[in-house]
Amino acid sequence: MPMDRPIPAFYCCYLLRSTVRPNSVYVGSTPNPVRRLRQHNGDAKGGAVRTSRASLRPWEMSCIVTGFPSHIAALQFEWAWQNPHITTHIPAESRIQHAAGKKRSGPPKRPRHSVASLLSNLHLLLRVPTFSRWPLELRFFSEDVYKSWLKWCKSAAKPIRESINIIPDFPPLKTEVSDSDESPRAKKRKLSHGIQGLAVAYENEKAHVEKGKNIVDFEREGSCAICHDQLEHGDGIYAICPAPACESVTHITCLGQHFLRDDEDSLVPIKGKCPSCGTEHRWVDVVKELTLRMRGQKEVEKLFKVKRARTGKATASRAAIESSDEEDEMDEEAQRQEIEDQLRELAASDPRREKMVGDWHEIDDSDDSDTRSIDSRTSVASRPAGTQAKQLARLNAIIEDSDWDDAEILD
C-alpha cells in the first residue's frame, strides 16, 4: 500500500490496568500516552466508555510496545493483541487462548483477558514472523507486571528475538518529601521515568535530520560509500549515516544489502554497520530520517520551528498550556484521520471492500462483555445491531488483510 507519511516519531500499543481492580485490563494504542492516560482517567476529554467506570479508576499503563513502522502497523498489532483467539497472525496450532463460544451476532466470542493472558499472548505475537523483525521495544512501568513477564518468559516454548528491547522503567522510590518541597532538579528527575519521560516527538532525530538536510540542500551527496557510483542529486533514494561525525551517503538498496550480508534470507535488515565509520545502527533509524527528508516536510518544519520566549505571566502560561493541549488534540485527530484515510486506500484497492472501513477509532476493547465502546464523538452502539456487527466484522477483515511485510516500511 502506498504511503505518503514518514515513519511516526512515536506510536505505541499499551496495556492498561485498573489500580482498584487489577483483573480489569484494557488494550489500546496512541501517539501520546500521557494525554491518553489522562483521558482514560477522566482528566481530559475523550477516552473510552470501557474505562469510564468510576469504580475502576484510576488506571495505570503497565507496559507499552513501541517502534512501529507506521500507524497502520500499530493498529494491526493492537487488533491482534486484543483478539489472539482469531487473528490470522497466530497459527491455529500455536494459540494460547481460544474463542469462548459465539456471540449472538455470530462471530467467535473473545475470551476474558487478564494481565497474565495478555502478557502470554504478547510474548507469542512478538515471536510470530509478521512482527518478530519489526524494530519493536517493550517497556514496563509496573514492577509486578514485569515480574509476571519474566516468569512467563521462563516457561515459554521459545524466546523472543534478541533485537526486541525489553526495558524496565519503574518510578524512583517514593520519599517523604512533598511535591511542594521538591527542587526543580528533583521534579525533572521524576519526569524522566515512566510515560512522562517518553520522547514522543522527533527530537531524537533532529541532529540526523539537520545533517541530512545540509548534505542534500548543498548537493554534497558525492558517491555511494558502497558501490562508489556517483549519487546524482534528486535522482535516487539515498541513506545518510546517523553518526554525528560521519557524512557517508549510500544508495538505500546498497546499504540494505550491506546490512543483510549475514542474513540473506530476509528482505529488510534489522541493524548493521556503516561502511564508512563502522558504527552500528538500527535500520529503522536510518530509514526514519530518510522518510522525514522525502515525505515529512511538515514534520521537519515543526521540528526546527523557533519557540517563542515565555512571558512569565500566569495568564500567558495558562494560554500556552491550553494552546498546547489544543495542538495535541489536533495532532491526534490528524493522525486518526490519516489512519482512516490509509485504511480507505487499502479498501479501495478492491471495489468489493470499498465499504468495509468504518470508523476504526470507535472500536474499543471490552474484555468482559460483548459490547464495543466508543469515543465521545459518535456511538456505534446507537446504530442498528445488524449494521454494527457487519461494520465491525468488515473492519476486522480489513485490519487482518493488511498483512504487511518488512519491505513495506519503504513502500
Automatic annotation (TrEMBL):
GO BP terms in the entry: double-strand break repair via homologous recombination
GO cellular component, one term: Slx1-Slx4 complex
Biased composition (Basic and acidic residues): 333-344, 350-375
UniProt keyword annotations, A-Z: DNA damage, DNA recombination, DNA repair, Endonuclease, Hydrolase, Nuclease, Nucleus
Nuclease found in the keyword field: yes
Compositionally biased spans, kind Acidic residues: 323-332
PROSITE patterns, per the entry: GIY_YIG
A GO term for molecular function: crossover junction DNA endonuclease activity
Hydrolase found in the keyword field: yes
SUPFAM superfamilies per record: GIY-YIG endonuclease
Annotated GIY-YIG domain residues: 9-91
Stored Pfam families: GIY-YIG (PF01541), SLX1_C (PF21202)
Cofactor: a divalent metal cation
Subunit structure: Forms a heterodimer with SLX4.
Family from the record: Belongs to the SLX1 family.
Functional note: Catalytic subunit of the SLX1-SLX4 structure-specific endonuclease that resolves DNA secondary structures generated during DNA repair and recombination. Has endonuclease activity towards branched DNA substrates, introducing single-strand cuts in duplex DNA close to junctions with ss-DNA.
Protein name as catalogued: Related to SLX1 Subunit of a complex, with Slx4p, that hydrolyzes 5` branches from duplex DNA
Taxonomy of the source species: Eukaryota, Fungi, Dikarya, Ascomycota, Pezizomycotina
